[in-house]
C-alpha cells in the first residue's frame, strides 16, 4: 500500500483550518468528505481534492473502501460514528476526547482490538516539535526526568468534566507521554461560578510525579512545561513555553563568584554555555517553522496514515486512548482528594 484511502467526517472551522490542509503532508488519498451541511462538504471536497461527498456517514462507510476515517466533531459524534467505523474494521482517528464518557471509550477500544484495527485520539501535543525533541533526549538516555510541572490555561468553562475532556486532556496526556501511565491522582479544585482552577498531582509507578495546574480563567491559551532531571549526573531542566520555545539548561556556574583570598581578585562569572534554546523562525517559510508542524497537527495525521500503511499501532495508539480518560474520570468523580487509578 503506497497510499491510504481516507474519509473525513466533519467540515467545521477546526477541521478545515488545521487538519484538512495537513493531509497534503501525508501518504493519504482523500476519497470522501461527509458533513450534515452538504454545502460545507462540497466546499471541502473541492478544496482538498475528494471525489465523493456525503451527508450520511454510514452510507459513506458502506460505499467507500476506506482504510481509515478521520472524525472531527462533538465527542458524541466521535463515539457514535467511531463505533460504526471500527465495527467495519476501519482505522479511526478522532479529535479528543474520543467519547463523552470513559465507559464509551472502553467500548471503542474493545471493538478496535476485536476487529484487528486501531483507534487514535488527536493528542497533537505529543507530535509538537519541542515535545518530540524533549522525548528524544529522554529516549536517548541523555536526559533523565525526575519531576514534571505542567501549566495549562484557557478561556472560561464552568463545567469540570467538560473542561477536562475538551481542553485539559491535552496536557494530561502530555504528562502521561513523558512519565507513563499514572497509578493515582491527587487534586484540588477552586470554582468561581464562571471559571474553574484545578491543581493535580499525577503519581507514577516509577515514583516520579507530575504537577498539573489547569485553569479556565485565561483570556487565551497559555502553556508551559518544565521537566526537571539530570544530564550525566548533573541537574538539568527542559522548559517548553507555549510550544514555541524550548530551553535546555545544564549545570554550570550560574553566575556564582568563585572565592578568592582577596576580594579584589574575584572575577564575576558569566557562563552561557549551559543554556541551549530553540524557537521557530517564522520569517523562513519551511515545514519545520510552520505552526501546524510546530504544534503537532501535521505530525499526528502523518502518524495516523503511516500506521495504516505500515500495518502497526500509531503513537498514541489504542492502548493510550484510555489513560487520560481514566484520570479525567477520577478527578471528575472526586475533585478534592486522592483517587487510585490502579485496576
Automatic annotation (TrEMBL):
Pfam families in the cross-refs: GFO_IDH_MocA, GFO_IDH_MocA_C
Residue stretches making up the Gfo/Idh/MocA-like oxidoreductase N-terminal domain: 5-123
Residues annotated as signal peptide: none
Lineage: superkingdom: Bacteria
Gene Ontology MF, one: nucleotide binding
Domain Gfo/Idh/MocA-like oxidoreductase C-terminal: 164-332
Family, as annotated: Belongs to the Gfo/Idh/MocA family.
Protein name in UniProt: Myo-inositol 2-dehydrogenase/D-chiro-inositol 1-dehydrogenase
The species this protein was found in: Cohnella phaseoli
